[in-house]
Amino acid sequence: MLSVVVLISGGGSNLRALLDASQDAEFPARIVAIGADRDATGFAHAEAYGIPTFSVALSNYQNRDEWGDALVEQIQVWQPDLVVLSGFMKLLPPRAVNALAPALLNTHPAYLPEFPGAHGVRDAIEAGASQTGASVIIVDNGVDSGPILAQERIPVRVDDTEATLHERIKPVERRLLIQTILDIANGHIDLKEFATA
After folding, report:
1. Which CATH superfamily is domain 107-197 in?
2. Which residues, given as ranges, of the chain have pLDDT below 50?
3. Formyl transferase N-terminal domain: from which residue to which, for each copy (predicted)?
4. For residues 22 and 50, what is the distance between their CA atoms, to the nearest angstrom?
């Protein structure tokens, strides 16, 4: 059974999907704690499922490295097998990434390496792309540049706005994330292969 810590910044819709999946007795992963960089509204999901939460605000620290160290310390209390960034809107400092990777996953609303960064959906529309996608990656110290574990194409419709396209991408992101966690738990993906020396 994989133990998972999920980090959020907002409402946690991916988190909710993971929590729902983990209620299945056959699902081989359990969320042991939910953390955030602020008092996130997604903590309501944690409360509903009786899962402990923690918050580590950047503003309480002198610099990003100290914040990252404190965040890692909080995560490691739970000794998770996997850490999932689920709408976590802060870039982790390199020291934190190095402490957690390769067992550090994130989803991205584009078919990487196309359209990395904070505005992947908007960038796809502005580029006139006929298709985009969703990806699950291992976090590295670049911007959405880590190894890709799963991805799927999604067509861009002529009448799509950023909002409508994003709404169609989100369920695919959730499904890919849940499948990736299953694949890790079942040994179909070996994260040790992605460990850097």
Report:
1. Formyl transferase, N-terminal domain (3.40.50.170)
2. none
3. 4-181
4. 13
Q: Which two tokens stand for residue 56?
A: 């580590």
| Binding residue positions | 12-14, 64, 89-92, 106
H or E segment and range at residue 177: helix 162-185
Asked if the domains at 1-100 and 107-197 fall in one CATH topology, the answer is yes
Kindly state which CATH superfamily the domain 1-100 is placed in: Formyl transferase, N-terminal domain (3.40.50.170)
How many whole angstroms separate alpha carbon 51 and alpha carbon 176? 23
10 Å Cβ neighbour count for 149? 21
Catalytic residue list contains 166: no
Q: How far apart are CA 193 and CA 70, in angstroms?
A: 27
From 45, 108, 119, 188, active-site residue? 108
Q: Tell me the pTM.
A: 0.95
**Domains of the chain by residue range:** 1-100, 107-197
Binding residues for (6R)-10-formyltetrahydrofolate: 64, 89-92, 106
The length of the chain is: 197
pLDDT digits (tens, 9 = 90+) for 89-143: 889 999 999 999 999 999 999 999 999 999 999 999 999 999 999 999 999 999 9
- The DSSP output letter for 150 is E
What's the pLDDT at 55? 96
Determine contact, residues 170/109, Cβ cutoff 8 Å.
Answer: yes
